[in-house]
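Hi all, a correction to my earlier message: I attached the wrong file for Rhomboid family protein. Here's the right sequence:
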Amino acid sequence: MNGTRESEDLRVDDGELPPFSTALWTLVRPRELVVLAVFPVLIAGTFLLPEETKRALTFAYTDPTVITAYVSHFVHLRSDHLLANMLGYALVVPTTYLLSVLASRRRLFWTMFATVWLAGPFVLSGLNLAFPRAAIGYGSSGLIMAFFGILPVALYNYVRPLFVSDLRSRDLPVLFFLVVGIISGIVLPRSDATVAIAVVSGVLAVVYGGYIFVRERRARKTFGSPARPVRPFGYVELPVVGVILLVGYPLVGFPSELVAANRVVNLYVHFLGFAVAFVATYVGEVTHVLAETSHGDAE
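and the right structure:
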């Protein structure tokens, strides 16, 4: 490495990847970091607005407007709500970004990041109107969970080269079922519906995950474990952080006080943010793979 940022690929020299810091210097672009910083700066800036102005920007379900449908997702009335969302963003988005660029999925990340920014507020506000009531909506929690919905696909792309078996995008739903099982089984208020969703999701995640595990064991017995490049500190720890977030962040993204206060609408929006973003990112990944396959066949 010569200190430039020209290459998108990590060179393997004598069976060893470059230092993690070198990889970051090569692949992380300063202008992209600036773009990533806009979101927390924006929600912090809106928090400094006068109280009357902030309340005027909230989304009234009985009197919705196009403007408030969008801007209400950047408005916070309480400092603890703001800080929780800023912390969630700081954990989820940079991790997803690093996993994506190191897995050569920069374009997919930025496509979904822009989609969440531009379309996410309108989608979540529109779906929220399915349950009309005399209340207001505000806060970035739904958007943070939408960013979280990109994480499983980024994590999959990062770890895919470690598998001997043919790990494909068709295996991605196992991560979706895992997160849905955690959300419905541990976080959401207990009901017949949530218990049923938790059981079905848990069974699907275990069966699907078990199938992948058995397939991988058989592949390693047949083909052996291929030589892997030595991975300096950072390459392994990054996906570990991603797994911890994948399993643990739903517990933070659905705060217990919201459940205790019976504010189910917020839980509904949080879940929708994750589910819609995951499906959109999954479709984007499948489209990317199909395009690569078609290009290869054409050659």
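Sorry for the mix-up. The radius of gyration is 21 Å.
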